[in-house]
Amino acid sequence: MSDFLSELAWRDLLYQQTEGAAAHFSAGTVTAYCGFDPTAPSLHVGNLVPIMGLVHLQRAGHRPVALVGGGTGMIGDPSGKATERQLLDVDEIDANVAGIRDQLERFLDFSGARAARMVDNGEWLRSLRAVDFMRDVGKHFTINLMMQKDSVKSRLEGGISYTEFSYMLLQAYDFLELHRRHGVTAQIGGSDQWGNITAGTELIRRTVQQEAHGVTLPLVTTTSGAKFGKSEAGAVWLDATRTSPYKFYQFWVNAEDADAVRFLKMFTLLGREEIESLGEALAAAPHERAAQRRLATEVTALVHGRDAAALAERVSRVIFDKRVDVRELPLDVFQTLGSEIPGARFPAATPLAVLDALEQAFGLSRSAARKLLQQGAVSVNGEKLAADTTHIDRAGAAYERWFLLRKGAREIAVLELTD
């Protein structure tokens, strides 16, 4: 098996491959592509599986092509969908393509002998003549064959439009065009793309009598059976304006113990020995969550950069570690906390009452706030407040502006003094 496929296999990223794929990747440099559907202006963490496939492809010495579907996005892939997609207008698709293009450029090297390439299939699909497409592509596929594909078969009872029924042929045509224009001989994608991928290999074989291959990656679920890529707030996006680096970090650091090592394999570039060592540390001391913290740091760094990952880690440590010395925290930690966790703002010129702070920061009633204080369950900047404390000493504000107000062991809010 080639280094590329071997790497995918030990990282639990290899699902299927066409016959002869291993020999094809072992024979020399292969140009392979993966497609990304512009249904939104940002990719999400579920897209990291095929993205990592392209990353490992390039690291193994092959040439990756990232195909953005400016053409196929006008149709919509029925794979994995129970109902028809809502059609997007051209301007919306173009805006989504631009956003996705920027994100993909963070992961791949676009320089050197094996430089990655970004391609938009709108270049050939938007000007494609229907009659030419039916003659040159449609004649190579029988309705019987298309009806057997999972993406079609699963929709027969509820109904599928001709628009989405034809998607398979458009993706097959993409493979052929990329083969002609850029020498692409392999496609990678999620396991739900197997029918579309093999349609492309068959079209290349029939039209230009050339060999082409496909490799699929698994669709990821969590050990608990939950859909991967969803948080309580919804989808976890790669765009920092949609999912902040801090929330992105939290998604990964909250991975279940049973998923942590598997996710380290799939979504980081750490080596086998280091991942195994983190797995051993997790088994020996699961409460320390060393594997999850490393997972969160590595994936956040990959998507948002090392600086953003370090800041997210520091902010997370403030929230979950009561022993953190607030006086040593950099200003950007407070600024991030102010936008990420519950809080309240108070004029700097007036006394700051403890009960007011608890009420506004946590939405407590007056009696509930007073009870917490009497129970010794309230602290400010790491110092527990006495039961008879009435006001917070403004002289203790970090940077003359910030307080961290904590109730109980885990709930924390940020108080900001304003001019």
How would you describe this structure to a colleague?
- The protein has 419 residues and is an alpha/beta fold.
- It folds into three domains: 3-217, HUPs (Rossmann fold, 3-Layer(aba) Sandwich), CATH 3.40.50.620; 230-321, Tyrosyl-Transfer RNA Synthetase (Orthogonal Bundle), CATH 1.10.240; 335-418, RNA-binding S4 domain (Structural Genomics Hypothetical 15.5 Kd Protein In mrcA-pckA Intergenic Region, Chain A, Roll), CATH 3.10.290.
- It has 19 helices and 13 strands.
- A six-stranded mixed beta sheet has the order 1-6-5-2-3-4, with helices on both faces.
- Strand 7 and strand 8 (234-235) form a beta hairpin.
- The chain is elongated, with a radius of gyration of 26 Å.
- How does CATH name the architecture of the largest domain? 3-Layer(aba) Sandwich
Indicate how many domains the architecture comprises: 3
How many distinct beta strands?
13
Looking at the structure, what is the overall shape? Answer: elongated
Strand line-up in the sheet with most strands? 1-6-5-2-3-4
Number of helices: 19
Topology-level CATH name of the largest domain: Rossmann fold
Strand content: 5-15%
Instruction: Please identify which CATH superfamily of the largest domain we are dealing with.
Output: HUPs
Taking all Cα atoms into account, the compactness measure Rg is 26 Å
Low-confidence stretches: none
**Helical proportion?**
40-55%
> Which CATH first-tier class of the largest domain would you pick?
Alpha Beta
First CA to last CA: what distance?
66 Å
